[in-house]
Structures are given as structure tokens and as C-alpha cells.
Amino acid sequence: MDFRQDIREFIGNNLTMEHEDAQISDNDNYFEMRFVNSLFAMRLVDFVERRFQIEIGNEDLDLANFSTINRLHDLIERKLAAKEVAQ
């Protein structure tokens, strides 16, 4: 399943004021581009856990997993697949 639109909407709603009209592609690193602030990272983890009903463990808390829409989508798919196998 493709969750990119949900991720795009969340990111779009949390851009810093000076970048609120920015267009982000699925491979843009919004942290490196400074479109988001440090508090955003915590909000993003919370959003992912709540929206997709998955647990982000310490081993997943690598900024690379969260730095682009595509990387975050891949992490979500891996976590959902692992959750399904465990059930």
C-alpha cells in the first residue's frame, strides 16, 4: 500500500513558517533543506506510530529512515510487514 500522500500531508502541515509554501519531492531531504525544525522529528515519529499503528524502536531511530518521504514509506512498509508476520 502507498502511504506517501499521508506522509506528504503531515510534512506539509509541519513545515517551518518561512518554507510553508515549499514543494517537496519524495526524495528531497527536508531536514538537510531546513524545511523542518528539530521538534518536527519527534512529531514525525509520533505521527508514524499513531497513524500506522506501529512501534518505532530505538534501532529505527536513524535520521536516514525519516529524512525523505520515500525512506519513511519504506520504513513503514517494513514495520507493517514485520507486524503482520508476528500476528
Automatic annotation (TrEMBL):
Residues 1-80 form the Carrier domain. This is Acyl carrier protein. It comes from Paenibacillus barcinonensis.
